[in-house]
Amino acid sequence: MSITARLEGALAAALEAVDGAGRPPRLSAAMAHAVFPGGARVRPRLTLAVARACGCDDLELSLGAAVSIELLHCASLVHDDLPCFDDAPLRRGRPSVHRAYGERLAVLCGDALIVLAFQALGAAAARSPQRLAPLLARIASGVGMPMGIVAGQAWECEPQVVLRDYQRAKTGALFAAATAAGALSAGADATPWLALGEALGEAYQVADDIRDVAASPQLLGKPVGRDRALGRPNMAQELGLDGAIALFTRQIRHALDAIPACPGAADLRSLVLLEAERLLPEMEPPLEHAARVA
Amino acid sequence: MSITARLEGALAAALEAVDGAGRPPRLSAAMAHAVFPGGARVRPRLTLAVARACGCDDLELSLGAAVSIELLHCASLVHDDLPCFDDAPLRRGRPSVHRAYGERLAVLCGDALIVLAFQALGAAAARSPQRLAPLLARIASGVGMPMGIVAGQAWECEPQVVLRDYQRAKTGALFAAATAAGALSAGADATPWLALGEALGEAYQVADDIRDVAASPQLLGKPVGRDRALGRPNMAQELGLDGAIALFTRQIRHALDAIPACPGAADLRSLVLLEAERLLPEMEPPLEHAARVA
Protein backbone atom coordinates (compact mmCIF):
# COMPACT_ATOMS: atom_id res chain seq x y z
CA MET A 1 0.00 0.00 0.00
CA SER A 2 1.34 3.47 -0.84
CA ILE A 3 2.22 5.90 1.93
CA THR A 4 -0.53 8.22 0.69
CA ALA A 5 -3.15 5.47 0.94
CA ARG A 6 -1.92 4.41 4.39
CA LEU A 7 -2.03 7.98 5.65
CA GLU A 8 -5.52 8.70 4.31
CA GLY A 9 -6.67 5.38 5.77
CA ALA A 10 -5.21 6.23 9.19
CA LEU A 11 -6.84 9.68 9.15
CA ALA A 12 -10.19 8.13 8.24
CA ALA A 13 -9.79 5.52 10.99
CA ALA A 14 -9.04 8.24 13.58
CA LEU A 15 -12.25 10.06 12.68
CA GLU A 16 -14.28 6.84 12.58
CA ALA A 17 -13.03 5.89 16.05
CA VAL A 18 -14.90 8.89 17.55
CA ASP A 19 -17.92 8.74 15.25
CA GLY A 20 -19.89 6.39 17.46
CA ALA A 21 -23.44 6.41 18.78
CA GLY A 22 -24.36 9.50 20.76
CA ARG A 23 -22.29 11.95 18.72
CA PRO A 24 -23.82 15.18 17.41
CA PRO A 25 -23.98 14.49 13.65
CA ARG A 26 -23.26 18.01 12.37
CA LEU A 27 -20.04 18.23 14.40
CA SER A 28 -19.01 14.87 12.93
CA ALA A 29 -19.68 16.18 9.44
CA ALA A 30 -17.77 19.42 10.12
CA MET A 31 -14.73 17.44 11.30
CA ALA A 32 -14.76 15.29 8.17
CA HIS A 33 -15.12 18.45 6.05
CA ALA A 34 -12.04 19.91 7.75
CA VAL A 35 -9.90 16.82 7.15
CA PHE A 36 -11.13 15.48 3.75
CA PRO A 37 -10.22 16.03 1.01
CA GLY A 38 -6.92 17.20 2.42
CA GLY A 39 -4.17 19.39 1.08
CA ALA A 40 -0.73 18.06 0.21
CA ARG A 41 -0.38 16.35 3.67
CA VAL A 42 3.21 17.60 3.68
CA ARG A 43 3.72 17.53 7.45
CA PRO A 44 2.54 13.94 8.05
CA ARG A 45 4.43 12.71 4.98
CA LEU A 46 7.52 14.33 6.45
CA THR A 47 6.89 12.52 9.75
CA LEU A 48 6.63 9.19 7.95
CA ALA A 49 9.69 9.87 5.77
CA VAL A 50 11.82 10.69 8.83
CA ALA A 51 10.46 7.63 10.68
CA ARG A 52 11.48 5.49 7.71
CA ALA A 53 14.92 7.12 7.59
CA CYS A 54 15.30 6.26 11.31
CA GLY A 55 14.48 2.58 10.68
CA CYS A 56 10.75 2.70 11.54
CA ASP A 57 10.07 -0.34 13.76
CA ASP A 58 6.50 0.57 14.85
CA LEU A 59 4.53 1.71 11.83
CA GLU A 60 1.33 2.04 13.88
CA LEU A 61 2.99 4.61 16.16
CA SER A 62 4.62 6.50 13.27
CA LEU A 63 1.23 6.67 11.53
CA GLY A 64 -0.36 7.80 14.82
CA ALA A 65 2.21 10.59 15.13
CA ALA A 66 1.65 11.62 11.49
CA VAL A 67 -2.14 11.63 11.96
CA SER A 68 -1.77 13.69 15.14
CA ILE A 69 0.35 16.31 13.35
CA GLU A 70 -2.10 16.53 10.43
CA LEU A 71 -5.19 16.82 12.67
CA LEU A 72 -3.54 19.68 14.57
CA HIS A 73 -2.76 21.37 11.26
CA CYS A 74 -6.38 20.96 10.11
CA ALA A 75 -7.63 22.33 13.46
CA SER A 76 -5.44 25.41 13.10
CA LEU A 77 -6.79 26.06 9.58
CA VAL A 78 -10.40 25.86 10.83
CA HIS A 79 -9.72 28.37 13.62
CA ASP A 80 -7.54 30.63 11.42
CA ASP A 81 -10.44 30.88 8.96
CA LEU A 82 -12.93 32.04 11.66
CA PRO A 83 -14.65 35.43 11.22
CA CYS A 84 -12.58 36.97 14.05
CA PHE A 85 -9.34 36.03 12.23
CA ASP A 86 -9.18 35.78 8.43
CA ASP A 87 -12.93 35.33 7.83
CA ALA A 88 -11.90 33.17 4.89
CA PRO A 89 -14.83 32.05 2.71
CA LEU A 90 -12.78 29.35 0.98
CA ARG A 91 -10.30 26.67 1.95
CA ARG A 92 -8.92 24.16 -0.56
CA GLY A 93 -11.38 25.50 -3.11
CA ARG A 94 -14.46 24.71 -0.97
CA PRO A 95 -16.40 26.68 1.65
CA SER A 96 -14.43 27.02 4.88
CA VAL A 97 -15.89 25.15 7.87
CA HIS A 98 -17.56 28.21 9.39
CA ARG A 99 -19.18 29.06 6.03
CA ALA A 100 -20.42 25.50 5.60
CA TYR A 101 -21.46 24.76 9.22
CA GLY A 102 -21.59 28.09 11.05
CA GLU A 103 -19.17 29.80 13.39
CA ARG A 104 -20.12 27.83 16.53
CA LEU A 105 -19.52 24.44 14.95
CA ALA A 106 -16.25 25.74 13.49
CA VAL A 107 -14.98 26.65 16.98
CA LEU A 108 -16.05 23.24 18.31
CA CYS A 109 -14.67 21.43 15.24
CA GLY A 110 -11.20 22.90 15.89
CA ASP A 111 -11.44 21.98 19.57
CA ALA A 112 -12.54 18.42 18.79
CA LEU A 113 -9.75 17.98 16.21
CA ILE A 114 -7.11 19.11 18.75
CA VAL A 115 -8.44 16.56 21.24
CA LEU A 116 -8.64 13.89 18.52
CA ALA A 117 -4.99 14.50 17.64
CA PHE A 118 -3.97 13.42 21.14
CA GLN A 119 -6.52 10.57 21.19
CA ALA A 120 -5.06 9.19 17.96
CA LEU A 121 -1.51 9.47 19.27
CA GLY A 122 -2.35 7.70 22.53
CA ALA A 123 -4.29 4.95 20.78
CA ALA A 124 -1.29 4.19 18.55
CA ALA A 125 1.18 3.75 21.42
CA ALA A 126 0.13 0.26 22.55
CA ARG A 127 3.34 -1.46 21.39
CA SER A 128 5.75 1.30 22.51
CA PRO A 129 4.23 2.90 25.62
CA GLN A 130 7.56 4.38 26.74
CA ARG A 131 7.68 6.52 23.58
CA LEU A 132 4.32 8.18 24.24
CA ALA A 133 5.35 10.89 26.75
CA PRO A 134 8.24 12.32 24.66
CA LEU A 135 6.12 12.19 21.50
CA LEU A 136 3.21 13.91 23.21
CA ALA A 137 5.54 16.64 24.55
CA ARG A 138 7.16 17.23 21.17
CA ILE A 139 3.93 17.32 19.17
CA ALA A 140 2.24 19.56 21.74
CA SER A 141 5.18 21.98 21.64
CA GLY A 142 4.57 22.40 17.91
CA VAL A 143 1.02 23.60 18.49
CA GLY A 144 0.78 25.11 21.99
CA MET A 145 2.62 27.64 24.10
CA PRO A 146 5.18 29.08 24.21
CA MET A 147 6.23 28.69 20.54
CA GLY A 148 3.75 26.49 18.68
CA ILE A 149 1.31 27.52 15.97
CA VAL A 150 -1.29 28.82 18.46
CA ALA A 151 1.38 31.12 19.91
CA GLY A 152 2.32 32.15 16.37
CA GLN A 153 -1.28 33.10 15.64
CA ALA A 154 -1.42 35.00 18.94
CA TRP A 155 1.46 37.27 17.85
CA GLU A 156 -1.07 38.80 15.46
CA CYS A 157 -2.94 40.06 18.56
CA GLU A 158 0.08 41.67 20.25
CA PRO A 159 0.71 45.43 20.03
CA GLN A 160 4.38 44.73 19.23
CA VAL A 161 5.39 41.71 17.16
CA VAL A 162 8.70 39.92 17.59
CA LEU A 163 8.88 39.04 13.89
CA ARG A 164 11.32 36.16 14.25
CA ASP A 165 9.25 34.51 17.00
CA TYR A 166 6.08 35.08 14.97
CA GLN A 167 7.44 33.50 11.77
CA ARG A 168 8.99 30.54 13.56
CA ALA A 169 5.95 29.78 15.65
CA LYS A 170 3.38 30.34 12.90
CA THR A 171 4.74 27.62 10.60
CA GLY A 172 8.17 26.39 11.66
CA ALA A 173 7.09 24.87 14.96
CA LEU A 174 4.72 22.27 13.51
CA PHE A 175 7.22 21.32 10.79
CA ALA A 176 9.91 20.86 13.45
CA ALA A 177 7.44 18.77 15.47
CA ALA A 178 6.69 16.73 12.34
CA THR A 179 10.33 15.73 11.76
CA ALA A 180 11.05 15.25 15.48
CA ALA A 181 7.92 13.11 15.91
CA GLY A 182 9.02 10.91 13.02
CA ALA A 183 12.33 10.21 14.77
CA LEU A 184 10.78 9.70 18.23
CA SER A 185 8.12 7.34 16.86
CA ALA A 186 10.97 5.15 15.57
CA GLY A 187 12.75 5.25 18.93
CA ALA A 188 15.48 7.59 17.61
CA ASP A 189 16.86 10.89 18.93
CA ALA A 190 14.84 13.86 17.69
CA THR A 191 17.62 16.47 17.90
CA PRO A 192 19.33 15.87 14.53
CA TRP A 193 15.97 16.24 12.76
CA LEU A 194 14.84 19.57 14.16
CA ALA A 195 16.88 21.73 11.76
CA LEU A 196 15.28 20.09 8.71
CA GLY A 197 11.81 20.80 10.05
CA GLU A 198 12.64 24.37 10.98
CA ALA A 199 14.19 25.17 7.60
CA LEU A 200 11.24 23.65 5.74
CA GLY A 201 8.80 25.51 7.96
CA GLU A 202 10.53 28.81 7.22
CA ALA A 203 10.50 28.03 3.49
CA TYR A 204 6.76 27.30 3.70
CA GLN A 205 6.09 30.58 5.49
CA VAL A 206 7.94 32.56 2.80
CA ALA A 207 6.23 30.60 0.00
CA ASP A 208 2.88 31.33 1.62
CA ASP A 209 3.75 35.03 1.80
CA ILE A 210 4.85 35.01 -1.87
CA ARG A 211 1.65 33.29 -2.97
CA ASP A 212 -0.49 35.64 -0.90
CA VAL A 213 1.03 38.50 -2.94
CA ALA A 214 1.51 36.89 -6.35
CA ALA A 215 -0.86 33.96 -6.91
CA SER A 216 -4.47 33.80 -8.08
CA PRO A 217 -7.29 32.67 -5.76
CA GLN A 218 -8.16 29.92 -8.29
CA LEU A 219 -4.66 28.50 -7.98
CA LEU A 220 -4.61 28.68 -4.18
CA GLY A 221 -8.19 27.66 -3.43
CA LYS A 222 -8.37 30.54 -0.92
CA PRO A 223 -8.37 34.34 -1.11
CA VAL A 224 -5.12 36.22 -1.85
CA GLY A 225 -3.87 39.59 -0.56
CA ARG A 226 -5.10 38.79 2.94
CA ASP A 227 -1.89 39.81 4.73
CA ARG A 228 -2.02 43.36 3.35
CA ALA A 229 -5.79 43.57 3.95
CA LEU A 230 -5.34 42.40 7.56
CA GLY A 231 -2.14 44.38 8.23
CA ARG A 232 -0.06 41.28 8.87
CA PRO A 233 3.69 40.94 8.34
CA ASN A 234 4.54 39.46 4.91
CA MET A 235 8.09 38.73 3.73
CA ALA A 236 7.23 39.29 0.06
CA GLN A 237 6.03 42.80 0.86
CA GLU A 238 9.03 43.42 3.08
CA LEU A 239 11.77 42.09 0.78
CA GLY A 240 10.08 42.46 -2.60
CA LEU A 241 9.17 39.44 -4.73
CA ASP A 242 12.74 38.79 -5.91
CA GLY A 243 14.12 39.08 -2.39
CA ALA A 244 11.50 36.70 -1.01
CA ILE A 245 12.15 34.19 -3.81
CA ALA A 246 15.89 34.33 -3.07
CA LEU A 247 15.16 33.74 0.62
CA PHE A 248 12.91 30.79 -0.23
CA THR A 249 15.66 29.21 -2.36
CA ARG A 250 18.16 29.73 0.45
CA GLN A 251 15.85 28.06 2.97
CA ILE A 252 15.25 25.06 0.72
CA ARG A 253 19.04 24.75 0.45
CA HIS A 254 19.27 24.86 4.26
CA ALA A 255 16.64 22.13 4.45
CA LEU A 256 18.60 19.93 2.04
CA ASP A 257 21.81 20.57 4.01
CA ALA A 258 20.04 19.70 7.26
CA ILE A 259 19.18 16.11 6.26
CA PRO A 260 21.37 13.90 8.46
CA ALA A 261 23.44 11.17 6.83
CA CYS A 262 21.13 8.12 6.83
CA PRO A 263 19.90 5.38 4.48
CA GLY A 264 16.77 7.45 3.71
CA ALA A 265 18.64 10.66 2.86
CA ALA A 266 18.09 10.39 -0.90
CA ASP A 267 14.32 9.88 -0.47
CA LEU A 268 14.10 12.85 1.88
CA ARG A 269 16.04 15.03 -0.56
CA SER A 270 13.54 14.11 -3.31
CA LEU A 271 10.63 14.90 -1.00
CA VAL A 272 12.04 18.34 -0.16
CA LEU A 273 12.69 19.18 -3.83
CA LEU A 274 9.26 17.98 -4.94
CA GLU A 275 7.61 20.07 -2.26
CA ALA A 276 9.65 23.12 -3.21
CA GLU A 277 8.57 22.78 -6.84
CA ARG A 278 4.97 22.28 -5.81
CA LEU A 279 5.08 25.38 -3.62
CA LEU A 280 6.60 27.71 -6.19
CA PRO A 281 6.54 26.09 -9.67
CA GLU A 282 8.37 29.07 -11.20
CA MET A 283 11.35 28.29 -8.95
CA GLU A 284 12.52 25.22 -10.86
CA PRO A 285 15.85 26.49 -12.23
CA PRO A 286 17.22 27.84 -8.90
CA LEU A 287 16.06 24.67 -7.15
CA GLU A 288 17.84 22.46 -9.61
CA HIS A 289 20.88 24.51 -8.78
CA ALA A 290 20.20 24.03 -5.07
CA ALA A 291 19.94 20.28 -5.60
CA ARG A 292 23.29 20.24 -7.38
CA VAL A 293 25.17 22.21 -4.72
CA ALA A 294 23.47 20.50 -1.75
CA MET B 1 0.45 21.00 52.45
CA SER B 2 -3.34 21.05 51.89
CA ILE B 3 -4.84 19.51 48.76
CA THR B 4 -6.08 22.96 47.73
CA ALA B 5 -2.59 24.43 47.96
CA ARG B 6 -1.04 21.50 46.09
CA LEU B 7 -3.60 21.77 43.34
CA GLU B 8 -3.22 25.54 42.91
CA GLY B 9 0.55 25.04 42.93
CA ALA B 10 0.36 22.35 40.26
CA LEU B 11 -1.89 24.52 38.08
CA ALA B 12 0.52 27.46 38.44
CA ALA B 13 3.47 25.20 37.61
CA ALA B 14 1.74 23.93 34.46
CA LEU B 15 1.22 27.49 33.22
CA GLU B 16 4.75 28.53 34.18
CA ALA B 17 6.20 25.58 32.25
CA VAL B 18 4.95 27.11 28.98
CA ASP B 19 5.54 30.75 29.90
CA GLY B 20 9.12 30.80 28.60
CA ALA B 21 11.02 33.17 26.33
CA GLY B 22 9.44 33.65 22.92
CA ARG B 23 5.83 33.45 24.07
CA PRO B 24 3.28 36.11 23.06
CA PRO B 25 2.68 37.93 26.38
CA ARG B 26 -1.02 38.73 25.96
CA LEU B 27 -1.88 35.08 25.28
CA SER B 28 0.05 34.17 28.44
CA ALA B 29 -1.95 36.71 30.41
CA ALA B 30 -5.24 35.50 28.93
CA MET B 31 -4.46 31.91 29.94
CA ALA B 32 -3.67 32.97 33.51
CA HIS B 33 -6.89 35.01 33.58
CA ALA B 34 -8.85 31.91 32.53
CA VAL B 35 -7.32 29.69 35.22
CA PHE B 36 -6.81 32.08 38.21
CA PRO B 37 -8.57 32.76 40.45
CA GLY B 38 -10.46 29.56 39.84
CA GLY B 39 -13.90 28.37 40.79
CA ALA B 40 -14.47 25.58 43.28
CA ARG B 41 -12.04 23.23 41.43
CA VAL B 42 -14.59 20.46 42.02
CA ARG B 43 -13.48 18.20 39.17
CA PRO B 44 -9.76 18.10 40.02
CA ARG B 45 -10.53 17.71 43.76
CA LEU B 46 -12.70 14.75 42.81
CA THR B 47 -9.81 13.28 40.80
CA LEU B 48 -7.47 13.61 43.78
CA ALA B 49 -10.03 12.24 46.24
CA VAL B 50 -10.61 9.14 44.08
CA ALA B 51 -6.84 8.71 43.61
CA ARG B 52 -6.43 8.79 47.39
CA ALA B 53 -9.28 6.31 47.85
CA CYS B 54 -7.47 4.00 45.39
CA GLY B 55 -4.24 4.17 47.39
CA CYS B 56 -2.51 6.94 45.39
CA ASP B 57 1.09 5.77 44.84
CA ASP B 58 2.16 8.44 42.33
CA LEU B 59 1.02 11.84 43.56
CA GLU B 60 2.75 13.62 40.66
CA LEU B 61 0.65 11.69 38.14
CA SER B 62 -2.59 12.15 40.10
CA LEU B 63 -1.90 15.89 40.29
CA GLY B 64 -1.10 15.88 36.56
CA ALA B 65 -4.43 14.19 35.82
CA ALA B 66 -6.27 16.66 38.08
CA VAL B 67 -4.55 19.63 36.41
CA SER B 68 -5.38 18.25 32.98
CA ILE B 69 -9.08 17.91 33.87
CA GLU B 70 -9.23 21.45 35.31
CA LEU B 71 -7.44 23.04 32.33
CA LEU B 72 -9.91 21.36 29.96
CA HIS B 73 -12.77 22.69 32.08
CA CYS B 74 -11.30 26.22 31.99
CA ALA B 75 -10.82 25.97 28.21
CA SER B 76 -14.45 24.98 27.75
CA LEU B 77 -15.63 27.97 29.82
CA VAL B 78 -13.53 30.37 27.70
CA HIS B 79 -14.99 29.00 24.46
CA ASP B 80 -18.55 28.74 25.88
CA ASP B 81 -18.38 32.45 26.78
CA LEU B 82 -17.43 33.51 23.19
CA PRO B 83 -19.72 35.92 21.34
CA CYS B 84 -20.94 33.15 18.99
CA PHE B 85 -22.11 31.08 22.01
CA ASP B 86 -23.21 32.74 25.25
CA ASP B 87 -21.48 36.09 24.70
CA ALA B 88 -21.07 36.17 28.47
CA PRO B 89 -19.63 39.43 29.80
CA LEU B 90 -18.78 37.94 33.19
CA ARG B 91 -17.22 34.77 34.54
CA ARG B 92 -16.50 34.25 38.23
CA GLY B 93 -17.44 37.88 38.84
CA ARG B 94 -14.80 39.26 36.46
CA PRO B 95 -14.80 40.06 32.74
CA SER B 96 -14.81 36.92 30.61
CA VAL B 97 -11.61 36.29 28.61
CA HIS B 98 -13.01 37.66 25.35
CA ARG B 99 -14.18 40.83 27.10
CA ALA B 100 -10.79 41.31 28.76
CA TYR B 101 -8.53 40.26 25.85
CA GLY B 102 -10.67 40.23 22.72
CA GLU B 103 -12.34 37.43 20.81
CA ARG B 104 -9.25 36.28 18.89
CA LEU B 105 -7.16 35.77 22.01
CA ALA B 106 -10.11 34.00 23.66
CA VAL B 107 -10.24 31.45 20.81
CA LEU B 108 -6.47 30.94 21.03
CA CYS B 109 -6.54 30.85 24.84
CA GLY B 110 -9.00 27.95 24.77
CA ASP B 111 -6.90 26.13 22.15
CA ALA B 112 -3.69 26.64 24.14
CA LEU B 113 -5.34 25.43 27.36
CA ILE B 114 -6.54 22.23 25.65
CA VAL B 115 -3.01 21.56 24.43
CA LEU B 116 -1.57 22.45 27.86
CA ALA B 117 -3.90 19.94 29.49
CA PHE B 118 -2.23 17.14 27.53
CA GLN B 119 1.24 18.62 28.00
CA ALA B 120 0.73 18.66 31.78
CA LEU B 121 -0.54 15.08 31.76
CA GLY B 122 2.39 13.81 29.69
CA ALA B 123 4.93 15.68 31.81
CA ALA B 124 3.57 14.05 34.98
CA ALA B 125 3.88 10.48 33.69
CA ALA B 126 7.64 10.02 34.12
CA ARG B 127 7.37 7.49 36.94
CA SER B 128 4.41 5.53 35.55
CA PRO B 129 4.74 5.66 31.73
CA GLN B 130 2.48 2.64 31.24
CA ARG B 131 -0.44 4.55 32.79
CA LEU B 132 -0.23 7.44 30.32
CA ALA B 133 -2.11 5.96 27.33
CA PRO B 134 -5.22 4.85 29.29
CA LEU B 135 -5.27 8.16 31.22
CA LEU B 136 -4.97 10.16 28.02
CA ALA B 137 -7.77 8.17 26.39
CA ARG B 138 -10.09 8.57 29.39
CA ILE B 139 -9.48 12.29 29.87
CA ALA B 140 -9.82 12.98 26.14
CA SER B 141 -13.12 11.08 26.04
CA GLY B 142 -14.46 13.53 28.65
CA VAL B 143 -13.82 16.50 26.41
CA GLY B 144 -13.81 15.35 22.77
CA MET B 145 -16.02 13.32 20.46
CA PRO B 146 -18.29 11.43 20.52
CA MET B 147 -19.60 12.24 24.03
CA GLY B 148 -17.33 14.74 25.77
CA ILE B 149 -18.10 18.36 26.64
CA VAL B 150 -17.27 19.64 23.14
CA ALA B 151 -19.85 17.18 21.75
CA GLY B 152 -22.29 18.37 24.44
CA GLN B 153 -21.85 21.96 23.35
CA ALA B 154 -22.30 20.90 19.71
CA TRP B 155 -25.77 19.50 20.47
CA GLU B 156 -26.80 23.16 20.81
CA CYS B 157 -26.06 23.51 17.08
CA GLU B 158 -28.13 20.52 15.94
CA PRO B 159 -31.63 20.92 14.50
CA GLN B 160 -32.82 18.04 16.71
CA VAL B 161 -31.40 17.53 20.18
CA VAL B 162 -31.12 14.12 21.81
CA LEU B 163 -31.68 15.56 25.29
CA ARG B 164 -30.15 12.68 27.20
CA ASP B 165 -26.97 12.72 25.09
CA TYR B 166 -26.81 16.52 25.40
CA GLN B 167 -27.09 16.56 29.20
CA ARG B 168 -24.66 13.70 29.71
CA ALA B 169 -22.04 15.09 27.37
CA LYS B 170 -22.36 18.72 28.46
CA THR B 171 -21.39 18.07 32.08
CA GLY B 172 -21.42 14.38 32.99
CA ALA B 173 -18.59 13.35 30.68
CA LEU B 174 -15.90 15.49 32.32
CA PHE B 175 -17.05 14.46 35.81
CA ALA B 176 -16.89 10.80 34.79
CA ALA B 177 -13.42 11.44 33.34
CA ALA B 178 -12.42 13.13 36.61
CA THR B 179 -13.27 10.12 38.78
CA ALA B 180 -11.92 7.60 36.24
CA ALA B 181 -8.67 9.54 35.88
CA GLY B 182 -8.21 9.53 39.65
CA ALA B 183 -8.43 5.73 39.68
CA LEU B 184 -6.20 5.25 36.61
CA SER B 185 -3.55 7.62 37.96
CA ALA B 186 -3.32 5.34 41.02
CA GLY B 187 -3.01 2.23 38.87
CA ALA B 188 -6.57 1.10 39.71
CA ASP B 189 -9.49 0.03 37.52
CA ALA B 190 -11.59 3.00 36.41
CA THR B 191 -14.88 1.13 35.91
CA PRO B 192 -16.22 1.17 39.50
CA TRP B 193 -15.72 4.96 39.62
CA LEU B 194 -17.59 6.00 36.50
CA ALA B 195 -21.07 5.91 38.09
CA LEU B 196 -20.03 8.38 40.82
CA GLY B 197 -18.73 10.83 38.22
CA GLU B 198 -21.80 10.47 36.01
CA ALA B 199 -24.24 10.98 38.90
CA LEU B 200 -22.36 14.03 40.15
CA GLY B 201 -22.17 15.44 36.63
CA GLU B 202 -25.92 15.07 36.23
CA ALA B 203 -26.48 16.73 39.61
CA TYR B 204 -24.25 19.64 38.54
CA GLN B 205 -26.15 20.06 35.27
CA VAL B 206 -29.49 20.25 37.11
CA ALA B 207 -28.06 22.61 39.77
CA ASP B 208 -26.75 24.83 36.97
CA ASP B 209 -30.19 24.82 35.33
CA ILE B 210 -31.84 25.67 38.67
CA ARG B 211 -29.44 28.53 39.34
CA ASP B 212 -29.85 29.85 35.80
CA VAL B 213 -33.56 30.20 36.56
CA ALA B 214 -33.55 31.08 40.25
CA ALA B 215 -30.25 32.70 41.34
CA SER B 216 -29.04 36.29 41.15
CA PRO B 217 -26.14 37.30 38.87
CA GLN B 218 -24.28 38.63 41.96
CA LEU B 219 -24.41 35.20 43.54
CA LEU B 220 -23.34 33.37 40.38
CA GLY B 221 -20.72 35.80 39.08
CA LYS B 222 -22.25 35.38 35.61
CA PRO B 223 -25.53 36.31 33.93
CA VAL B 224 -28.71 34.37 34.71
CA GLY B 225 -31.67 33.45 32.49
CA ARG B 226 -29.31 32.61 29.60
CA ASP B 227 -30.92 29.26 28.75
CA ARG B 228 -34.30 30.82 28.10
CA ALA B 229 -32.71 33.76 26.26
CA LEU B 230 -30.70 31.37 24.06
CA GLY B 231 -33.48 28.80 23.61
CA ARG B 232 -31.53 26.03 25.30
CA PRO B 233 -32.97 23.04 27.16
CA ASN B 234 -33.22 23.66 30.93
CA MET B 235 -34.47 21.07 33.43
CA ALA B 236 -35.82 23.69 35.84
CA GLN B 237 -38.01 25.08 33.08
CA GLU B 238 -39.05 21.61 31.99
CA LEU B 239 -39.82 20.11 35.43
CA GLY B 240 -40.57 23.28 37.40
CA LEU B 241 -38.34 24.39 40.30
CA ASP B 242 -39.67 21.80 42.75
CA GLY B 243 -39.32 18.99 40.24
CA ALA B 244 -35.77 20.02 39.40
CA ILE B 245 -34.81 20.25 43.08
CA ALA B 246 -36.24 16.77 43.66
CA LEU B 247 -34.23 15.47 40.72
CA PHE B 248 -31.08 17.11 42.09
CA THR B 249 -31.60 15.47 45.49
CA ARG B 250 -32.13 12.11 43.81
CA GLN B 251 -28.93 12.47 41.80
CA ILE B 252 -26.89 13.38 44.88
CA ARG B 253 -28.29 10.27 46.52
CA HIS B 254 -27.21 8.24 43.45
CA ALA B 255 -23.75 9.75 43.73
CA LEU B 256 -23.50 8.77 47.41
CA ASP B 257 -24.72 5.26 46.59
CA ALA B 258 -22.16 4.96 43.78
CA ILE B 259 -19.12 5.39 46.03
CA PRO B 260 -17.42 1.96 46.04
CA ALA B 261 -16.49 0.40 49.38
CA CYS B 262 -12.96 1.65 50.06
CA PRO B 263 -10.92 3.20 52.88
CA GLY B 264 -11.60 6.70 51.44
CA ALA B 265 -15.40 6.25 51.23
CA ALA B 266 -16.17 8.49 54.23
CA ASP B 267 -14.04 11.33 52.85
CA LEU B 268 -15.69 11.06 49.45
CA ARG B 269 -19.14 11.10 51.04
CA SER B 270 -18.23 14.33 52.85
CA LEU B 271 -16.92 15.85 49.63
CA VAL B 272 -20.15 15.02 47.76
CA LEU B 273 -22.35 16.45 50.54
CA LEU B 274 -20.26 19.61 50.87
CA GLU B 275 -20.47 20.17 47.12
CA ALA B 276 -24.23 19.58 47.12
CA GLU B 277 -24.69 22.19 49.85
CA ARG B 278 -22.41 24.64 48.07
CA LEU B 279 -24.36 24.18 44.82
CA LEU B 280 -27.82 24.64 46.29
CA PRO B 281 -27.59 25.99 49.86
CA GLU B 282 -31.38 25.85 50.31
CA MET B 283 -31.21 22.07 49.85
CA GLU B 284 -29.75 21.30 53.27
CA PRO B 285 -32.65 19.42 54.86
CA PRO B 286 -33.25 16.94 51.99
CA LEU B 287 -29.52 16.38 51.71
CA GLU B 288 -29.20 15.57 55.36
CA HIS B 289 -31.92 13.06 54.75
CA ALA B 290 -30.01 11.73 51.75
CA ALA B 291 -26.89 11.39 53.88
CA ARG B 292 -28.83 9.42 56.50
CA VAL B 293 -30.35 6.99 54.05
CA ALA B 294 -27.21 6.56 51.93
TrEMBL record, chains A, B:
Cofactor(s) in the UniProt record: Mg(2+)
Broad enzyme group: transferase
Single biological process term from Gene Ontology: isoprenoid biosynthetic process
GO molecular function, one term: geranylgeranyl diphosphate synthase activity
Signal peptide start and end residues: none
Cited PROSITE patterns: POLYPRENYL_SYNTHASE_1, POLYPRENYL_SYNTHASE_2
One Pfam family, short name: polyprenyl_synt
Keywords on record: Isoprene biosynthesis, Magnesium, Metal-binding, Transferase
EC number: 2.5.1.29
Family: Belongs to the FPP/GGPP synthase family.
Protein name: Geranylgeranyl pyrophosphate synthetase
Species of origin: Piscinibacter sakaiensis (Ideonella sakaiensis)
